[in-house]
Amino acid sequence: MSSIAIAVLVFVLMFAAALVGMAARAALPEHHVADASKDTVARAAGLVVTLTALVLGFMVGSAKSYYDEVQDKLKRIAADAVVLDRSLARLGPESSEAREILRQTMGSATRTIWPDHATQMPALPAGRPVEGMERLQDLIHALPANDDMQRAIRDRALQSAVEIAREGWMLVELSQTRIQRPLLVILALWLVAIFLGFGLLAPRNYTAVTALVLSALAAAGAIFLILEMYDPVGGLMRIPASTFELSFEQIRR
């Protein structure tokens, strides 16, 4: 399910729980809605609210850190690619094949990370971007160096290629990180329990219903943000493919 669908489902469950609570309050005997019972329900709901607030805050912070880390690595790969291309250009026309492999690797990486994005960047004839970086490292290692300066440039270029490959592998590992389903289900159950308690305590008027709707929207919005930030290259808050395309424009010059 998409993040929007999950957020809407959680909202519906919360609001339905609140309506069930309001209906139950009207059907319960008088002694069940006395002040002592209300106080017990309020204390129990307060405990669950505290737990839910702590978990929600932790999850939002964790998701934001994950999103920022992926974005930082994408920007770093793009910047390193530009630096690598400029180093290769200083090694003369012998580096033309290596520079072309770099362009193709960046194009294939863009298509892999953003499969729904149409791009004009060239792609590798075969193989994955990581294999393209391995081929690029072999080509850089084979480049001739006539003096100490060229050897230093070649060594820096090789180091940049190794760094890009390392960042690429780390990005692959990060892309496997997703929010744990049991945690999301438990959080949704806590929210439903909270709104059931709210419904038991709330009077049956438009002001109370409006407050419950707005509260449910806020909680569902937090769920939506968490899911979106755990999918940084998809969804509505995706990191744009221009992160790589802008670097490609620099490489093509």
Describe it for me?
The protein is mainly α. It has one domain (3-204, 240-252). It contains 8 helices and no strands. It has helices at residues 3-27, 35-89, 96-113, 129-142, 148-175, 181-201, 206-229, 242-252. Helix 2 (35-89) packs antiparallel against helix 3 (96-113) and helix 4 packs antiparallel against helix 5.
- SS element count, helices: 8
Name the poorly predicted regions: none
Percentage of β-strand residues: under 5%
Number of domains: 1
- N→C terminal distance: 42 Å
Kindly state the percentage of residues in helix: over 70%
Structural shape: rod-shaped
The whole-number mean of residue pLDDT values reads: 84
Instruction: Describe the largest sheet.
Output: none
Strand segment count? 0
| Assembly level | single chain
List the helices and strands and how they pair.
Elements: H1 3-27, H2 35-89, H3 96-113, H4 129-142, H5 148-175, H6 181-201, H7 206-229, H8 242-252
Descriptors:
mainly alpha, rod-shaped, 253 residues
Task: Give a brief outline of the structure.
With 253 residues, the chain is mostly helical. Helices cover 77% and strands 0% of the residues.
